[in-house]
Amino acid sequence: MINTVxxxxxxxxxxxxxxxxxxxxxxxxxxxYSAGETIxxxxxxxxxxxxxxxxxxxxxxxxxxxxxxxxxxxxEGSIFGEVFYFHAxxxxxxxxxxxxxxxxxxxxxxxxxxxxxxxxxxxxxxENLFSIISCKAAxxxxxxxxxxxxxxxxxLMAYFQIQSSKNNSTQFKxxxxxxxxxxxxxxDRSAMMREIKKLKEEGYIDxxxxxxxxxxxxxx
Amino acid sequence: MINTVxxxxxxxxxxxxxxxxxxxxxxxxxxxYSAGETIxxxxxxxxxxxxxxxxxxxxxxxxxxxxxxxxxxxxEGSIFGEVFYFHAxxxxxxxxxxxxxxxxxxxxxxxxxxxxxxxxxxxxxxENLFSIISCKAAxxxxxxxxxxxxxxxxxLMAYFQIQSSKNNSTQFKxxxxxxxxxxxxxxDRSAMMREIKKLKEEGYIDxxxxxxxxxxxxxx
DNA sequence: ATAATTCTGTTGCATAAGCAACAAATTATA
DNA sequence: TATAATTTGTTGCTTATGCAACAGAATTAT
Lengths: 220, 220
Known about the structure:
The structure is a homodimer. By secondary structure, the first copy, chain A, is α+β, with helices and mostly antiparallel strands. Chain A is built from 6 helices and 11 strands. Chain A has a 4-stranded antiparallel beta sheet. In chain A, a hairpin with a 2-residue loop joins β10 (205-208) and β11. In chain A, α3 packs antiparallel against α4 (152-167). The longest helix of chain A is centred in the middle third of the chain and has 29 residues, at 119-147. Chains A and B meet through α3 of A and α3 of B. Chain A binds a DNA duplex through residues 150-153, 177-179, 187-195, 197.
């Protein structure tokens, strides 16, 4: 399941000039990685924040079996690090460069402590970090709202209603494939397809490709 | 479902003297409420943090039907506010005094901005806030881990395994009733009871009252 | 353009899980 | 202590859902 940090940018509201100042204050210099290279492994105690300055990368979980899942897709401006990953065990999680990229690492403690050089931007940075974490938490909360319904039908409708209200419209586009949706709502894909078919037949929804339309009020 | 802010204290590491200094810096004075009184209603845009200095309170969701659920139990040192509640809609959520209590309100923005008087404690405060939010997010994440299993059996075992590893023991005490557990893992209580019985019979677990023991490795 | 891979759509079958309804045990409250 | 309220334990019935297995569409890679 992909869990993007889409909500806000860590350095929004901070000029490029001040960004540079802060980086020298944080004593952080960019590092280069070529496509396919491992940027880092997650360790539970580590307290650094990574920032993708250029290029793309992925956060990957590798299972004992050797199979892998992409947990997150990172692009320019994305941040990563164990502090943003709230699971207890970070075993087998690593960040891999998807293209040639430059990455900065900042000590988490340094972000928390105020610095004298750029204090006014610093508080902006902290506010941004809060909104990123809060946003992640909101996404988790939303996911729970969907998962805590008992039936596939209810999970689907809960998900659709959230998307609809986010879009301020009864019509919206699914952000991922139907297979991924089944994964997100944690149900068997074929059973989900069956339920979608029923919902269509009963006139609750219309769905072609990834375009969904809610047709009538669903009373749970 | 009760969602306690148990992880860390907002003012841990800050002396009582400095706490007072900060409060005057925040221009926050304590307000008194008597048992049963409504302390506040949640509004999505509001950006204040509440702190229970003395007494107890509850965060309650009131449905259109008039029925209520306790979302959180607050005691001395607990904090509350819409910034710690990650759901989209805050409709019908209010904080009610469970006993006579004194409460402080702090503007969220003031916490973010650094102040000159007590800067060194301020960064401690911010770090504490981060750990509170991260901890909440971790709880949500844990909940998703449980809910994303397909069967009642798998959900139960996932939950038990988390509790076991938190306790560093195959034996642990459930933090809530079996009914509440059914609620937490979002399944029918009677079906859950049936599954617990089976798990007992098959020798996976032992459970009397709220004491659970994991007896053999469960291979999911 | 062709091959390979992933995604979509469908079905039969077995059973897990929801629902309702009840009694007994436990805990809370007056 | 008596009474109320909640929690636990159980069962029959029905059906929703997981699983396996398949074929065709749509992507993506070569």
